[in-house]
Structures are given as structure tokens and as C-alpha cells.
Write a structure and sequence with these properties.
single chain; about 700 residues; alpha/beta; eight-stranded mixed β-sheet; about 50% helix
Length: about 700
């Protein structure tokens, strides 16, 4: 018998247990083991019913995605499921933890399903650019009806046991999986229940067969946000096949679509992103076995937009927070905004009705820095100027308890300089959250020169605990994300001096898949911020300065690079801006030319990739995939393009290096010359991915 699947007999019930830690993934060995054990149980005359269950913390949580892209190993999952579905003896899936992807497809091929009350069931393949490939799109609509099936398959989010029971996905909620499954199997035998094969039961498809709009409306609602993605639409089509075609034909269509998607660039990019996120949690250069410091309570200094959002992230994870301000008035304003945010989310059904009160109860608002004394982690989220931050850290020394991790939420500033203000630089690091901090998933964790390994491990593990994706970066101006973004900003501005318009540049960037272009983003942030900063440093930017001098600060004044109707955030091109740009160019004696969309795309993206190469050379990021994680989760880089460094490999580094050298000459901008690392990889015909492979081999 198999190592990872075993068969035991409890009187007349055969118990098949999968034991493939950590998540019982459906590797070739597991598939083979299930097939062998099910066949043995069917052949054993003493066995009257079979229970399929799992050891450890979960039911089968999905396919073994390390097998993707490799030659398939027998047996295929469909072959295993066919034997199970056609078993003359009832098979009961007994689920605990999560039954996801292939795991739920296995359960759907059983005749009955039971689950513990905290179980979650889902088909999340769409998040990897795929669809369920072992009958999920055909059996789930027959189990729960096409509306819920589309929601689960196209949306990719799992449902809980209570909803699974209500929808008919499971027959019963049980205490323990194996015992509950066994008791249910005995009941099936006692009641002589007929075997329910989902493939033969079309009763829940009848309403959608009679009125196709039931299905199409459900699809329309779900695909609204799937801009640029292929898999959600392919998955919806496959579910539609369950309504329109006989089971075997629907299964064939599902298989064909799965094979097409698995070979697609989008799915490769999405699977890469999945692994990149996991890789980012591994910290380079930290001794093995370094343990995290305990974090029972967090103090956050500053109750503004960032501080409030960070406090909400901790409260959402059930971690108590002390929120500190300098005056009662600012504290009251900050707490009021958080309360409103929670109530709005509850009103939309995003969180339970009692959640706002429960979460706000975890946040204690106080005035005065001395209130950090009980915190294990202190996060400073005050105004982004070095003088203010240094002042706070200078005072933290006398109030924070020994061993507390002291973090600065800064997006640009030098953490080494901030750490020098304390007598404990080993406890100081950066935790750069993104706005709005309660929504955005990225947390850039900045390792300073003297940051202790256990402080770093603490920051990474607490970021994960509050559902953030951590990426460890080094100290430099703007760290990874903002440093690369600055290169894009520089080119965007130059393009206006050459003849492009804000709306043309933004359209190219959004067509590529970014949520916003650089000029719309400037309007959202407020153009006066950059203007003030330029004046402080004695720098001029003729077009941007002219806009600000005309009182055009962006969305807050109803006009910036675009105009905005009252109460609307829709950016509308403004002839006045075009006139202002023309006048500025005439005054400077600049000639306009026609700038192509292709040039705009190259000048928006390639300089960022070039900066990414410099970041890798300097060791600011440990891996190309860490840079990609920063862009995917902090800046809205389209997941189906995998991140800037992954995308660069697909475009070809030789092409990118050549184009950068061309633009450096054409625009007389030496900063566009290919970085040494990019040039070397291009000359050797290598990729950024080859760097990661080489460091792993070493």
C-alpha cells in the first residue's frame, strides 16, 4: 500500500486516509494511493461503504502545483475520480480544514459529503490563471446550482460549512471528520440511500436551462472586475457548458480549456506570483532557527490616514492597539474616521454587523508618547519629514520597553539615520505600509545596518499575521517601489515636453493593465506636495509648476492635469491643460513631435526595469521576485504580467537594453543607459530568473 494513503477497516466501513503533510496536496503519490485504496475497498467483500478523510490539519487543499508545466505522472486525477464515482459502494468525503481545488473536486466525485463546522470549501484555480480541470466546472453546478457555482469558480473564494450545507454541497455538519464520516456512512447503509452521482443529476440546472439570464447575470456581476484577465471568462464559459451540454461533453470542454490556460502566459505569470509571494517571506542572511519576538500589543504613533489604516489592520487580526496622538482633537478625528470606515464596510456586507464595535474595542486612543510603555512593537506613522521622525525616535528610548521592536512607516527616508537617534539601533527597522493601509497588501520591511535578525523576523511574521505580504528591502532613497516609480515619473514628465499629452500617457499605462496612469495618480495624491518639495530643493519643473501656480492641485481643487466634475473622481481631459503645455513649450523654445504609444510604453516601463537591475546589484532586494512582489501588491501591477522583472524576461533583456541605450542617446539622458547587471545579462542571453536559479544552486 501507498506511503501517503492508507486503508483501514472499521467493521463494515473502509476508511481511506490521506497523510501528505503539510496540506495533503494531490501529488502523483496521493492520486495513486487513493486509487489503490479505493479499488482494494471495493474488492473487499466485508466493506460495505467507504469514507475518504485526511490526517493533519486539513482535507486535500489542492493540486501539487510544483507538478504544473512538467510531464504528467499517472494516474491522472480524472481517472481516479471516475473509479470513485462509479464505485458500487457508497463513498463519503469527510472534510475538515479546507477542501480546495482538486481537493473539492475529489469530494464532488464522492456520493456524499460531510464537513466539520469550521471547514471551508472552494475552487480557487482562477487565482492561478486556471480553471478546475477535474470536473469541478461540471459537478459543482449540479451540486449547488449554476449561480453559486459561478460565484465560487469565477470569483475563486471559498464558502464556509454553513453555506455548503444550505446549498446542498454537503449533507451534514459533523464533529470530527473520520468519526462523523463513519457515522454518516452507517446511516446511508441503514436507510438504503441510493448512490447520488452528481454527473447524472441535472435537477439543479433546470431553472438556468429554462432561463439563461439567471446564469448570465451572475457571470456579468463577477467578471466586472476581471479587466485584462482570461481565466474568469474561460471559467464562466466552462460552467455554462454544464447547463448546455451533456456531462461528458462538458468535461471534455473543461479539459481542453484547462490545457489551453495552463500553457498561457497569463497563467504562468500568476503561478509565478503565487510562488514569489511565498519566497518573499524567506529572509536572506538570517541565521536558521531565528525566532520571532512575542507581540501581544502594538503601539501606533499618529492617528492620521496612515496611522489609522495601520491600526485597523492590527484590530482586524485581533491584536490590541494603543493609538497615540499629540492632542485630544486629532485623536478624536482619527478614531472617528476609523469608526466610519468600519461602519461603511459593514453596511456593504464586507464584515459582520457586530464587527465595527468589536474591532474598535481593540483600539485604545491616548495622548502622549509615554503610552508606548506596554507595546512589544511600536510603529511610528507621523509626518514624512526626517526632523519629526528623529524627534519621535529620540524620545522612544526613554519610554519603550527593552526588546520592543521600533518601526518607522516611512516611504523614502534613511532608517539608519533614524536608528542613530536611539541607544538600541538593533531594534529599529522600517515597516512601509501602503495607502490605504487597511486595504493594501504590501509591507516593505526595511532592514537597517544594525537591525537584529530576530527583530527582522518579528516584523515579517507580524506582517503576515495581519494579512500583509512582506518584502524585505535595504536602505536607499525610496526603497524598492518608490525608487523605481521615480524613474517612471521622470520619463512621464519628459514626454510632456516632447509632445505627448497626459491623457495619452495615462491611456497607454492603463491599457497595459495598471490601475492608473502617472498623471491621474499625481492628481489623486495632490500636485502641491511635489511643488512644495521642489521649491524647498530649488528645483523647477516648468509644466507641473505652471499648473500649481494656476491653482490646479488635482482632485482636491477639481482640476490638475485633468478636470473633475463636482463629486466625481472621473479624470476628464482639459483643453486648458493642453493650452498651458503648448504655451510653456513655446516659451522654452521646444518643438512638439508625434510620440507613439509604443515609445510611451517603453519609456514608462524600461527605465523602471533598469532601476530594478540597479537595486539587485546593490543588494537592496535579495531576489528579482521580491521586486515583483512589491509591484504586484503595492502598486497594482497586473498579476497576469507577473511583475516588472518577470515581464522583462518575457520581453527579452537584450531588446530592453538596446532600447534603453537608444533612448539615452535620443533624449540626451545618460540615466537611461543600461545598468551594468542588465547589460551583462543581455549580452550573455540570460534572464533575471537565471539570477534566482543561480543563487538557489549556490
Amino acid at each position: 500500500m501507498s506511503e501517503v494513503v492508507k486503508l483501514e477497516r472499521h467493521d463494515i466501513i473502509g476508511i481511506v486516509t490521506v497523510n501528505n503533510p503539510p496540506v495533503n496536496a494531490l501529488s502523483a503519490a496521493v492520486r495513486g494511493g487513493i486509487l489503490e485504496c479505493i479499488k482494494s475497498a471495493i474488492a473487499d467483500a466485508e466493506v460495505k461503504a467507504i469514507v475518504l478523510t485526511c490526517a493533519g490539519r486539513t482535507f486535500i487543499a489542492g493540486a501539487d502545483i510544483t507538478e504544473f508545466g512538467k510531464p504528467p505522472k499517472p494516474p491522472g486525477l480524472n481517472e481516479v475520480l471516475e473509479v470513485m464515482e462509479n464505485s458500487p459502494k457508497p463513498i463519503v468525503a469527510a472534510i475538515h480544514g479546507t477542501a480546495l481545488g482538486g481537493g473539492l473536486e475529489v469530494a464532488l466525485a464522492c456520493h456524499y459529503r460531510v464537513a466539520t463546522k469550521d471547514a471551508r470549501l472552494g475552487l480557487p484555480e482562477v487565482k492561478l490563471g486556471l480553471l478546475p480541470g477535474a470536473g469541478g466546472t461540471q459537478r459543482l453546478p449540479r451540486a449547488v446550482g449554476p449561480e453559486l457555482a459561478v460565484k465560487m469558480i469565477v470569483g475563486g473564494d471559498p464558502i464556509g460549512a454553513a453555506e455548503a450545507l444550505k446549498s446542498g454541497l454537503i449533507e451534514e455538519i459533523v464533529e470530527g471528520p473520520a468519526a462523523g464520516g463513519e457515522a454518516f456512512a452507517l446511516k446511508v447503509l441503514a436507510e438504503k440511500r441510493p448512490l447520488r452521482k452528481l454527473r447524472d443529476d441535472d435537477s439543479k440546472l433546470a431553472a438556468a436551462k429554462a432561463d439563461r439570464s439567471i446564469f448570465t447575470n451572475a457571470v456579468a456581476a463577477l467578471t466586472k472586475r476581471a479587466r485584462g484577465l482570461e481565466a474568469p471568462f474561460a471559467a464562466a464559459d466552462a460552467v455554462g457548458a454544464a447547463i448546455d451540454l451533456p456531462f461528458d461533453e462538458g468535461l471534455k470542454k473543461e479539459r481542453e480549456t484547462f490545457l489551453k490556460l495552463v500553457a498561457s502566459d497569463q497563467s504562468k505569470a500568476q503561478r509565478y506570483a503565487f510562488f514569489a509571494e511565498r519566497e518573499a517571506a524567506k529572509i536572506a542572511g538570517v541565521p536558521d532557527g531565528t525566532k520571532s519576538r512575542p507581540v501581544e500589543r502594538v503601539a501606533i504613533i499618529g492617528a492620521g490616514t496612515m496611522g489609522g489604516g495601520i491600526a485597523m489592520s492590527f484590530a482586524n487580526a485581533g491584536i490590541p492597539v494603543t493609538l497615540i496622538e499629540t492632542s485630544e482633537e486629532q485623536l478624536k478625528r482619527g478614531l472617528g474616521v476609523m469608526q466610519k470606515n468600519y461602519e461603511a464596510t459593514a453596511a456593504r456586507g464586507g464584515i459582520p454587523a457586530d464587527a465595527p464595535a468589536k474591532r474598535m474595542a481593540l483600539i485604545t486612543g491616548v495622548v502622549g508618547l509615554e503610552n508606548v510603555k506596554d507595546a512589544d512593537l511600536v510603529i511610528e506613522a507621523v509626518f514624512e519629514t526626517m526632523a519629526v521622525k528623529k524627534e519621535v525616535f529620540g524620545k522612544l528610548d526613554q519610554y519603550a520597553k527593552p526588546g520592543a521592536v521600533l518601526a518607522s512607516n516611512t516611504s523614502y527616508l534613511n532608517i539608519d539615520d533614524i536608528a542613530k537617534e536611539t541607544k538600541r539601533p538593533q531594534d529599529v527597522l522600517g515597516m512601509h505600509f501602503f495607502s490605504p493601509a487597511n486595504v493594501m497588501k504590501l509591507c516593505e520591511i526595511v532592514r537597517a545596518e544594525k537591525t537584529a535578525p530576530d527583530a527582522l523576523v518579528t516584523a515579517v511574521s507580524i506582517a503576515r499575521k495581519i494579512a500583509k505580504v512582506p518584502a524585505v528591502v535595504g536602505v536607499c532613497d525610496g526603497f524598492v517601489g518608490n525608487r523605481m516609480l521615480a524613474q517612471r515619473g521622470k520619463q512621464a514628465e519628459k514626454l510632456l515636453f516632447e509632445g505627448a499629452l497626459p491623457q495619452q500617457v495615462d491611456a497607454v499605462v492603463t491599457k497595459f493593465g495598471m490601475p492608473m496612469g502617472p498623471f491621474a495618480m499625481g492628481d489623486l495624491a495632490g500636485l502641491d506636495i511635489g511643488w512644495r518639495s521642489r521649491k524647498d530643493r530649488g528645483i523647477k519643473s516648468e509644466i507641473a509648476d505652471a499648473l500649481c501656480e494656476a491653482g490646479r492641485f488635482g482632485q482636491k481643487t477639481g482640476k490638475g492635469y485633468y478636470k473633475y466634475e463636482a463629486g466625481s473622481r472621473a479624470a476628464l481631459p482639459d483643453p486648458e491643460v493642453e493650452k498651458l503645455i503648448d504655451e510653456t513649450l513655446a516659451r522654452l523654445g521646444r518643438k512638439k513631435r508625434v510620440v507613439s504609444d509604443d515609445e510611451i510604453l517603453e519609456r514608462m516601463m524600461y527605465p523602471m526595469i533598469n532601476e530594478g537591475a540597479r537595486i539587485l546589484e546593490e543588494g537592496i532586494a535579495a531576489r528579482p521576485s521580491d521586486i515583483d512582489v512589491v509591484w504586484l501588491y503595492g502598486y497594482g501591477w497586473p498579476i497576469y504580467r507577473g511583475g516588472p522583472m518577470f515581464w522583462a524576461d518575457t520581453v527579452g533583456l537584450k531588446h530592453i537594453a538596446d532600447r534603453l541605450a537608444f533612448y539615452a542617446k535620443e533624449t540626451n539622458d545618460p540615466s537611461l543607459e543600461p545598468a551594468p547587471l542588465l547589460k551583462r545579462l543581455a549580452d550573455e542571453g540570460k534572464t533575471f530568473a537565471s539570477l534566482a536559479a543561480a543563487s538557489k544552486a549556490a
